Amino acid sequence: MNENINNLFNFYREVGACPSVSLIEEECFGAVSGQNKDWPQMVFGLNLSRNPAPDLEQILTKTVSANLPEFAVCDADIFNMKTLKILREKGIYPVKIWTLMNTHYSAPVPPEQQANVKIKKLNSCAEIDAFTSLVNTELMQSVKMNPILAKEMIEKNAFGFYGLFAAGELVSGLLAYSDMINTGLYFIVTKRAFRGKGLAAELIRYVTSLYRQKTNKVVLQATQKAVPLYARLGFSVCGKMVIFWKR
Q: pLDDT (tens digit, 9 = 90+) per residue, 203-215?
């Protein structure tokens, strides 16, 4: 399995072990559900055949009927125009594409931080609340992150919340998850008024350097718009994933 996909699935499993999240794993799929339809809401690890449309329809029909997530993340390479047409006829639509990217730590050593900028690991309840608020305001749409879940996650060694502060204000952040093989970067977010200043790039360089000696690669899932930024930071494209939604 692609190391990026494997890290993502392990990420969902680790989040699913938190008290405020439900996790089920069956032979053909896993599903994580936050309380009150909060994040995460995802079906993952699907075991699909060479003709994936019937399998995906069957799994999503099962999860939706059981009041489980109606979203499923899949390897985009196994779907073609014919299977997408079949799925649309069944009320299942592709709603988001993620570009999978990874780095072998070929990026240069991070430069000194900009003036009045501080990067640190987030530990206090106030810092985690600020991170959650930033994610929910700038990144999330209908499904929000529960601050209670975020505080449960900081108790696990696998997760690390990092933030960049400008004049004492948290303006950029990300969540790092290590499965002891690779490290995934999640919820990379910057406050709108501070975008275009290189702050997210500085934060990513900082966190990547921290995990240089700990894991093999740093991986992430990028929107198409963000691919050029990550490419400049030493990341390369290694595939795509698609999120399907059953109406």
A: 999 999 999 878 8
28 and 59, same structural domain? yes
Instruction: Please tell me whether residues 72 and 156 are part of one structural domain.
Output: no
Tell me which residue range forms the domain holding 71.
Answer: 3-99
Count of domains forming the chain: 2
The angle, 0 to 180 degrees and rounded to 10, between the axes of the packed helices 81-89 and 52-65 is 30
**Alpha carbon distance 132, 39 (integer Å):** 11
In DSSP terms, which residues pair with 164 in a beta bridge?
Answer: 119, 172
59-71-13 Cα angle (round to 5) = 85
User: Whole-prediction pTM value?
Assistant: 0.94
Q: Look up residue 112 and give its amino acid.
A: E
Other CB atoms within a 10 A radius of the CB of residue 159 amount to 19
Tens of pLDDT, residues 23-39: 999 999 999 999 988 99
Residues 123 and 74 in one domain: no
Contact 123, 115 (CB under 8 A): no
Cα 179 to Cα 3, 159, 215: the distances in Å are 10, 9, 8
Contact 20, 149 (CB under 8 A): yes
What's CA 181's distance to the chain center, in Å? Answer: 17
Q: In the prediction, which pLDDT does 107 show?
A: 47
Report the CATH number that the domain containing residue 202 is assigned in CATH.
Answer: 3.40.630.30
Helix-, strand-, coil-residue percentages of the chain, each rounded to 5: 35, 30, 30
3-state secondary structure of 55: helix
